[in-house]
Write a structure and sequence with these properties.
A three-stranded antiparallel sheet has the order 1-10-11, with no helix packed on it. A two-stranded antiparallel ribbon has the order 2-3. A two-stranded antiparallel ribbon has the order 4-5. The chain has two domains: 255 residues, no CATH class; 77 residues, no CATH class. The chain starts with 25 loop residues before the first helix and ends in a 14-residue tail after the last helix. The chain is an alpha+beta fold. It is 45% helix and 14% strand.
Length: 377
Amino acid sequence: MREPAESTPSHGKSRVPARMQRWKRPNVWLGAIIPSLLLIFALRGYSLVLLEITIACGYAVVVHIALFLTGYSYFAVFFQRRESPRRKEPPVEVQEKRVIFACDDQGESIRCYRDSCGGAWQSLRTRHCADCATCRPNFDHHCAFVSNCIGQDTMKPFFTFLVWAAVLLSVALVPFVPLEFRSMREVVRTTWDTAELEERWWSRRLSWAGGPVWHYAGGLLLGYRLYQKTAHERPLLVPDVTTRTFTQDGITYAYDVPLYPSLAVPHLGTLAVVFFALFITLIALAMIFVIVRNTRLGTSAIQIERTRLWRSQDGVKPVYDARVALWVPLDAERQAGQGAVVYVEPDTPLFDLGPSENWRRVMGEKWWQWFVPWVPR
């Protein structure tokens, strides 16, 4: 057992350190920007996937179902309440010290005085989120993608959001990856074989100002621009066309235009959507792995970080005591209020009921319930 750090909370109060103004916190302004970008991406991606590609009915049904479940799960987390804790006082059994509860070094229940919590009682797995300015039960982490905390009420819809987002993006990318690969190949060929780019970019020293990345990325961007200028001289990558007509001076004229303009000619916008979709898919898959692992272990992201910090201080007196102080009553029936403060190291599996039981308690009893956001856990 290690000695606790010199500074520990006293009298059941959470210490209130000097805090950064909320609007200056990165998660706050990222939480305002990222959802807007996701909305733009969703609208643009929808128009590309369902409005610019001839698709079978089954493909459209799968995309719409995945889109609905993704959107439902996302907004179930996004609109989760952020108000201050309603319950200020601990339960009677905690006040009388007849049960095990999180406490300070004096054996008093912990209260939070940060932001607008106003001395609200903090249970064992409750943490104060500085980004949301309130306490959260079973706090795991704050996610800027959904501009909210992931915890007791949001863990399952957040998991279903990740699962269905990965399914939606994977299905949507099926027709796009081959097209974008062919588009990039044509642009690269144009980039290397065009005398205009040789004169304007490759032969200039300025093209090396930002190093090799700037040199080749800049050439690729100019290649896209040049390709679009000369697109009328090149065959369409997607040859489907539609005929349009207009009437002038009593004479009707007909002309052909690409049926899918964003795909017939290489566009940076389409490339950006595809790369962003791949990026989001990889993030979703990584987060799914983390949530499945942590849930089955009965732990949380913040608990893992506390454990890493504790182990990194092994052999030295800790600057920050990551242990949990618990009040343990001696005899709850006969000697109310009699007990001792026990320090538990953060790597102790206090909440591990076994992988299967841990998972069922968070995600649901039946396998199909794991993927339905509105079925209660």
